[in-house]
Amino acid sequence: MCGIAGYAGKGDVVTTIISLLIELQHRGQEAAGIAVVAKSKEILTIRVKGLAIDILANDAFHKLSFSNPCCGIGHVRYSTTGGYMDSQAQPITVGEGLLKIAVAFNGTIANYVALAKEFGLRSYPGDTYVLAEVLYRLALEYGKDVVEALKHLAEYVIGGYSIAVLTSEPRLVIARDPYGFRPLTYSYDGETFVFASETAALDVLGFRDWREVGYGQILSFDGKSLEATGSSIHVEPAPCIFEYVYFSRPDSIFNGVSVYSARVRMGEELARNSPADGDVVIPVPDSGRAAAIGFSKASGIPLEEGIIANKYVGRGFIMPPQIRDSISRLKYGFIRSIINGKRVVLVDDSLVRGTTLKNIVSRLREAGAKEVHVRIASPPFRYPCFMGIDVASREELLAWRYISPSDIAKAIGADSLGYNTIESLLHAVQLQTVCTACFTGRYPFKNLTVDYLGKMF
Ligand code: SF4
Predict the structure, then answer these.
(1) Atom of ligand 1 nearest to the CA of 384
(2) What does 228-277 look like in DSSP terms, one character per residue?
(3) What is the pTM of this model?
(4) How far is the CA of 307 from the centre of ligand 1 (A)?
(5) Burial class, 135, CB count within 10 angstroms (exposed 0-12 / middle 13-18 / buried 19+)
(6) Which CATH architecture has domain 3-235?
(7) What CA–CA distance (Å, rounded) separates 377 from 420?
(8) What is the topology classification, in CATH, of domain 251-438?
(9) For 143-155, what is each residue's pLDDT tens digit?
(10) Which of 179, 318, 387 is the pocket-test mutation for ligand 1 (most atoms within 8 Å of CB)?
């Protein structure tokens, strides 16, 4: 998924961007980066492996801070193409002479290999480089105009992107793809322009008059005025429903809908669709908490925090696969007095690869649970995503390998397993048009099937 942020205005540009990135850290923990335009009009960049706070320890941090930057952008990375812990931290800087740009984005470009060939790129370690190069070349074609390039970008790209571009002019340009898969939000008061992937990041830093960037909208700030325009492509919006299920912070608003309220409604729907005989509802922290509150409310079964997450271990879903297993064992502690002798209804947001839940179910039994009934606030996750999350193959998905919930329950060691239906999920989210492809296999791109999209990677 990834998170992006940026700032142009008075005060400490570098610290403000790093603070925004810290508030977006749940969107990516592998790498972080920042690019600013110094007073000299040079673009200065720091890219580090690890967390946003690690930027402060980089040797170049003081150089950036003392360069009197007017504006900048930043990124936290969760890789969807190009491998883990590699050199693809963002922002990436491309261009030369009078047009240099730094690019950071949140999403995935599914056709990046084909695009690289079309634009004659010889080496392309992942979609970010291809996207930055394509954008730069389009800008050259349109008279060094990044806004024009962004208008036409969707004519070339298959995938999802919320993007930030910093030019050496200096200018800050942000855009959301025409489907609006990923969130992007901004605040502008006539002097200061600030943006972040999620509303919660702006709220925490005191920018409370935020707005969401519209589907296909492009915003350009040159230090004096903010101009808005739109993509050359018009499609039916398809914001990612999984942002409500898992990705976004519960204190964020996405497409005008509170993520927290949507999750509570998912839990209420789940209790009605897939009831369970239990003594206690226990959420998988933190991702299942709001849905568990809804489940408990609708079922009347008391809610308890029987599992405690170690806050110093990151989000399991966005961990590299090589360490997911061992991390999921380290991440949770169990409160025996809550669990022992009880029929536990364990609520989580989603069941994708099953690594975490299998481990939790077995640890609940070790802590004395009499029965464990797993309830999932979303439908079976059966299809890969090509628009911003790291599930590119069906073989990784538990619900693809085992079709029936009872087989999946056996695979994770639970007494029973129940899901929400796609109808109840849509009801909980309360939006007219959304992307549900990972649950339904219906991708928003006209005439493109899962097999066709899968071959692009
Ligand atoms: S496929 Fe799923 S995760 Fe990907 S954009 Fe669509 S709803 Fe979101």
Answers:
(1) 1
(2) EEE-S-------BTHIIIIIS-TT-EETTEEHHHHHHHHHHHHHHHS---
(3) 0.94
(4) 28
(5) buried
(6) 4-Layer Sandwich (3.60)
(7) 5
(8) Rossmann fold (3.40.50)
(9) 999 999 999 999 9
(10) 387
